[in-house]
Design goal:
22% strand; nine-stranded mixed beta sheet; Pyruvate phosphate dikinase-like enzyme; D-amino Acid Aminotransferase, Chain A, domain 1; ATP binding; Rossmann fold; alpha+beta; Dna Ligase, domain 1; pyruvate; PPDK_AMP/ATP-bd; 860 residues; kinase
Length: 860
């Protein structure tokens, strides 16, 4: 506590009643009107002037000015419309700049409800502001309207403040009733006091006290202002169209956000009844976040018109999702005392410095009792059905900023007694909250100029689509769909028909770069088209493993598809796999048993004999049309024994694309000795002609000979070069898969460690088991697209592929020169060369890609 200097309220008699103010005191007045607040502020300001105090007035309300004479007073006008974080952070900064022993007057805190519609956040603002004021030995006056805030909010304020006082005006007489006076006591201190100028008389007689209090209005129930607003919206459902439209706009502002393209779309497609239903499934208050909005909007779009509703409604699996409002995220931070750490992390100098500490704390905090109660009610609703806890931040899944894979999603298998399931769920929420401090997410926000934006984390809780199959739970189909397939591998592909990235089991394998396995790529103009697969390679490029929820072990795990092949999956298995006749024939010829030969999971019957491809094509086209923008969706699908299909649309977001670009002329005759590489197909990024001034090359032989830890070191060194070459035209080349988590399959860089490259090249060495993966539709793919990075895969030794690695390996290695003093690059593995006249060409029509010197130039 600060030095116990005595300070006058300006009312001498009242000073005696409460034994003066102390430096560090926060003083909260409960009032019926602003006039009553002005009554106690005026003598406080007059006394502060006499004492030559540094007086600051925070003016943010719509009510009359609390301090009438501003002579010698600093006035600040923070805007609550900027949101809780921006508002609280600005005030926190000002308080820090004004320093110790300043005297403050705040406008009535109840005014914040007009902007935030949340008692919870009003209480949180006081909890983060009051301790800082106390720490700096200030004195601050606040006011709240009586009988407006919830009892929980009043309890929060009472617990945090040093003084809580009621002010009443009855028959033109003023009364002050101290409710809390910290570290001071007298026998009459907590009686109501009649104020008469400088005289104060305690009301001690029971008859007088009873008569006085009988004049007050007491309300038994006080709803959070958020729920008051939702109830008004429900009443408006029976009102005039103008009233409905106004209330719809208000709720969209509160749940989705203001002034954005997504908000405009929600205004167009949602009815008031839709928004009220969404609000009814929110836990806490605040925004529901981009992922929730995208999912709900997409479902509304495909069932809006009578024609689309008749087509899609019977196919669409119902959803019963819940939404954890973004205010819970801030409440969690405030509840655990991390607000100052959060404020430090938001600064330029603390952005990366404090993130690891905050991330660690976010993984281990406690939730308020009222929030835990709502969590339990939701879990009781779901019973033991598996659920998934998904990030749904404010900026996520928006136009231009997908945040693909930057934040966590966590499956809750949801088995065990209620306490166990609650603990698992809260752990999952903590993991998602902590992911806001992931290094990739921080870099992503900073690189897109979003570091200073309010990035609250809401959460989408969804019932996992699928069914029980023995000890396992999974959907038959899961995948990603893109309405625009500009990253083609065959000149015959219709880019406007869209594409799917399809898996059997949980969709985690569809959005991630699959390790040691392959997913099904489907071009919706011709679903039977086979990318990258030669004769006899169908088994090799089939899906061999699947992700499931293990009900017995209460975990998510990967298993062999063979483990469920002979199980009853309650649907026609032939939709998903076929017998591997080629392998069976070869084994039979040499007298081997063929009963254990696994089938090929290629979805041929699904794609050839059902309406599934056409349904997905139509869905993607409709969404893209209404978004007026390419879209990216996530979905699951299940069949029953009667062959009926049900699709669950889990997510929809705008898909950023580079476009095809202008046609590029590539010489018909290529001098194989002069080019660095040449290939047919297997690239993403449209038509390009890119200058290449630097090449960062990881040599396969030397890399594979390294120990595993040394391979991780190589990844970090690539990251150093990536940082040093920012703003340069650089191309990254190396064995296998960039960004893999398995060093034996490629270099395990994070995306942030290659994001400054103009082009990325993955080189296949089949004899060494090193193969690229053209991850159309994965999070890695989305990162490449958003960052404008050209991608090419080179299958060394294949027809129409030329790779002259010696042109890099024989040139001067300038890796240490690029990094500079203290160079930590393994120059035996990583080669960096500066080129002269090198260009990268690609042409969609001819499906050719070439990296070579210019005709008149010199390469090295």
């Amino acid at each position: 506590m600060g030095i116990l200097d005595s300070v006058s309220t300006g009312m001498k008699g009242f000073d005696k009643a409460i034994d003066m103010l102390r430096l560090g005191d926060n003083v909260v007045w409960q009032v019926d009107s602003i006039e009553d607040y002005c009554y106690v502020v005026a003598p406080y300001i007059e006394q502060a002037r006499k004492d030559n105090r540094n007086i600051i007035y925070f003016r943010f309300g719509t009510h009359r000015q609390v301090v009438e004479d501003l002579t010698g007073i600093k006035i600040y006008e923070p805007d609550p419309a900027m949101g809780f974080e921006g508002f609280a952070t600005m005030i926190h900064r000002i308080i820090g700049e004004e320093g110790v022993k300043a005297f403050y007057v705040f406008d009535c805190l109840t005014e914040l409800l007009a902007f935030w519609y949340s008692d919870l956040m009003t209480g949180n603002f006081f909890r983060v502001t009051c301790p800082y004021l106390y720490e700096l030995d200030t004195i601050a006056y606040f006011a709240i309207k009586r009988n407006v805030h919830t009892y929980d909010t009043i309890a929060t304020i009472r617990e945090t403040t040093q003084l809580l006082l009621d002010v009443y005006k009855i028959n033109d007489r003023f009364y002050i009733h101290p409710l809390k006076v910290w570290q001071r006591y007298s026998p009459t201190m907590f009686f109501p006091h009649y104020i008469d100028g400088d005289e104060v008389e305690p009301i001690t007689a029971s008859t007088e006290a009873a008569e006085l209090f009988s004049n007050f209005n007491w309300t038994e129930e006080r709803l959070d202002y958020w729920h008051v607003t939702i109830n008004r919206a429900r009443e408006a459902l029976e009102g005039e169209e103008k009233e409905k439209e106004e209330m719809k706009g208000l709720l969209i502002d509160l749940l989705i956000g203001r002034e954005s393209r997504m908000r405009d779309m929600c205004m167009s497609f949602f009815k008031l009844s839709d928004i009220v239903k969404i609000a009814g499934r929110e836990i806490g208050t605040g925004f529901i976040g981009g992922k929730s909005v995208g999912m709900l909007l997409a479902r509304r779009i495909i069932t809006r018109s009578d024609e689309d509703k008749a087509y899609f409604k019977p196919l669409l699996e119902s959803h019963d999702s819940f939404y954890l409002g973004s205010d819970i995220y801030y409440t969690y931070i405030v509840e655990n005392g991390w607000w100052q750490l959060r404020t430090k992390q938001k600064t330029e100098e603390g952005y990366f410095t404090y993130a690891p500490e905050l991330k660690e704390k976010l993984r281990g905090g406690r939730f308020p009792r009222i929030v835990k109660d709502e969590f339990m009610q939701m879990l009781e609703y779901y019973g033991q059905s598996p659920i998934i806890v998904r990030s749904s931040s404010l900026l996520e899944d928006n136009f231009g900023n997908a945040f693909a894979g930057k934040y966590e999603s966590v499956f809750c298998v949801n088995q065990g007694d209620p306490e166990k399931r609650l603990d698992d769920f809260m752990d999952a929420v903590r993991v998602v909250y902590a992911s806001t401090m992931n290094e990739d997410a921080l870099h992503y926000r900073k690189n897109r100029g979003l570091a200073d934006r309010d990035e609250q984390m809401a959460i989408l809780v969804q019932r996992v689509s699928g069914d029980y199959y023995g000890d396992y739970f999974f959907p038959h189909i899961a995948g990603v769909g893109n309405s625009s397939n500009l990253y083609v591998w065959d000149k015959e592909v219709d880019m406007e028909a869209g594409m799917l990235r399809l898996v059997f089991g949980l969709g985690t394998r569809a959005v991630d770069r699959v390790i040691g396995d392959y997913v099904k790529i489907v071009t919706l103009d011709d679903p039977m088209r086979l990318p990258l697969i030669g004769y006899g390679e169908a088994q090799k490029y089939s899906q061999h493993n699947m992700d499931v929820l293990n009900l017995k072990e209460n975990t998510q795990e990967s298993i062999s598809v063979n483990m469920v092949i002979n199980s009853d999956i309650k649907a026609d298995k032939n939709l998903f796999w076929v017998r591997d006749f080629e392998t069976e024939r070869r084994l039979s010829e040499i007298g081997r048993d063929v009963s254990g030969v696994p089938p090929i999971l290629n979805f041929i019957k699904l794609l050839k004999e059902t309406e599934f491809p056409e349904i997905m094509k139509r869905m993607l086209a409709l969404l893209a049309d209404k978004y007026n923008y390419p879209v990216d969706i996530e979905f699951t699908a299940n069949y029953n024994r009667e062959g009926e299909l049900h699709i669950n649309l889990l997510q929809c977001r705008p898909l950023q694309t580079r476009g095809l670009g202008k046609t590029v002329d590539i010489p018909e005759e290529v001098d194989e000795k002069k080019c660095l590489f040449y290939s047919h197909g297997n690239f993403m990024g449209g038509n390009v002609r890119l200058p290449v001034d630097y090449i960062v090359y990881v040599s396969v032989k030397e890399y594979l000979e390294l120990k595993e830890q040394d391979k991780y070191d190589i990844a970090r060194q690539v990251g150093l070069l990536n940082r040093a070459l920012k703003g340069k035209n650089a191309m990254l080349m190396g064995p296998g898969r960039w960004g893999t988590t398995t060093p034996s399959l490629g270099v395990p860089v994070h995306f942030t460690e290659l994001m400054n490259m103009s082009a990325v090249c993955e080189i296949a060495y089949s004899e060494k088991g090193i193969m690229p993966e053209l991850s159309y539709g994965s999070h890695f793919f989305q990162d490449l697209v958003e960052s404008g990075i050209f991608y090419v895969a080179l299958f060394d030794g294949r027809k129409n592929v030329v790779l002259n690695e010696e042109k890099v390996l024989e040139a001067e290695n300038i890796a240490c020169e690029i990094i500079g003093e203290g160079c930590a690059v393994n120059a035996d593995v990583i080669h960096v060369v500066r080129t002269e006249g090198m260009e990268l060409y690609s042409d969609i029509v001819s499906q050719r890609v070439l990296c070579s010197e210019q005709c008149a130039g010199k390469m090295f």
